[in-house]
Amino acid sequence: MKRTAQATIVGKINPDVLTFTVGQDPMLDLELAEWDCIGTAAHVATLARLRAKPAVLSQADAKRVIRELVAIIGEVRAGRFEITEADQDVHLAVERKLTAKLGELGRRVHTGRSRNDQVAVDLRLHVRDQLTSLAIEVADLADVLLRFARRHARLPMVGRTHLQPAMPSSVGLWASGYAEALLDDLLTVDAAYAYADRCPLGSAAGYGVPLPLDRAYTAHALGFHAPHHNVIYASNARGKCEAIVLGALGQIMLTLSRMSEDLILYSMPEFGYFMLPADLCTGSSIMPQKYNPDVLELIRAKTSVVLGQGASACSILKALPGGYNRDLQETKALYLDGVRTTRSSLRILSLLVNALDVRPDRLRAGFGPGVFATDRALELVAGGMPFRDAYQQVRANLGDLVGSDPDEALAAKSGDLGTADLDFELLRGRVASEWRAAQHRRRLSQRAFARLLGVAYPSLEG
């Protein structure tokens, strides 16, 4: 039976087609609603600057629209903003609200703009905000690891290759190694931020419009580094931006996953190097004694999900023709879930590491004679013996190393960048630098939004 077409702002649509094409947007777009209002404010401010007769929007008109957009942001934050299926997405929901409140003025707002550049700017504003928060959370976890490493800098720990005992190491070396890895992962986050820090507004559907829009002004109003130069590239970059961000998130998750695997192994009774805090573990429905490392196991699994989301975004893009294609709708959910997953994983690991209990007796008990073999071979080399001769002699006489002291072995590895002489100040300096850079980015964005909206931001106080 033929169903009656449903009316929307952009025409009547078969209700089955509407449901299929809208997908999850009414739910997902709630996360973009504030950014859509801010992007719309920049667009109307740009329209009010046009030297056209009759004027598309006057300065007074723009101020009225922006006041209403600030009110909508308040509704979004209070949980009162709704996106219906007939709206299709956040863009038309905001336009509906403006039109209901402002009448003809609300119907003028979309002049010179497409939902293509609208969603692109929403996502980039969201990316900049999320990557700024994520950088702080990465730095926070690195700081927790460095404080943990400093407390246990000289506590011996068996270093392993192939999971087999290898050479003397320390808890400080283990923990600060993951801290440095996370700080290096921020290099990929910085690259993703730089990629997203260009404004696509004014590109419309990817081919510009016959209006003298000041795209540089729009970009500046939103705190972007610059506008996209080529308008079709501004459109084609949609999806790729999300894929690049997911790639950076994947690198962070890889570090978190490997650290989680270490913590699972080293907290097993057979190792017993660490004890996980009981309140961050979960129990069994049948076995009363169980304290399971579920959060660490979930981080391992979620890493695969985030890596898969990055691969999915790239797969969606790989064969698309130039210009906008509806396929790109699917990259939005991948990105939003990926950033949410990565940020929650960072926060939960900070909690866990901060409460981690270390067991020095079990760490020292893990040292067998073989762990000291390489150090002994190098001592023989220092006395003049060829390395291969030293290697064979130690291999044939491992029993001679029984009773070797792991603390002495660790202390012997001193000097520049040695196992026992970690430069914590160097790494703490990098953490502080990341904090400062993220806070600076946030202040610049908030100042731009405050100027644009005419209210304090983020408080929205007039």
Can you give me a brief rundown of this structure?
This protein is mainly α and 462 residues long.
Gyration radius (Cα, Å) is 28 Å
Largest sheet: 2 strands, antiparallel
Structural class: mainly alpha
Strand content: 5-15%
Say what the CATH topology of the largest domain is: Fumarase C, Chain A, domain 2
Q: What's the CATH class label of the largest domain? A: Mainly Alpha
Order of helices and strands: EEHHHHHHHEEHEHEHHEHHEHHHHH
Helix content: 55-70%
Describe the protein in words.
This protein is mainly alpha-helical. The chain folds into three domains: 6-111, Fumarase C, Chain B, domain 1 (Orthogonal Bundle); 116-365 and 422-448, Up-down Bundle (Fumarase C, Chain A, domain 2), CATH 1.20.200; 372-403, no CATH class. 61% of the residues lie in helices and 6% in strands. It has helices at 15-22, 25-28, 33-47, 59-78, 90-102, 104-108, 115-151, 171-196, 215-221, 231-236, 240-266, 294-317, 329-354, 360-365, 373-382, 387-396, 406-412, 424-453; strands spanning 6-8, 11-13, 156-161, 164-170, 198-199, 226-227, 274-275, 357-358. The strands form four sheets. A two-stranded antiparallel sheet has the order 1-2. Strand 1 (6-8) and strand 2 form a beta hairpin. Helix 8 packs antiparallel against helix 11. The radius of gyration is 28 Å and the shape is elongated. The protein starts with 5 loop residues before the first strand and ends in a 9-residue tail after the last helix. The mean pLDDT is 94.
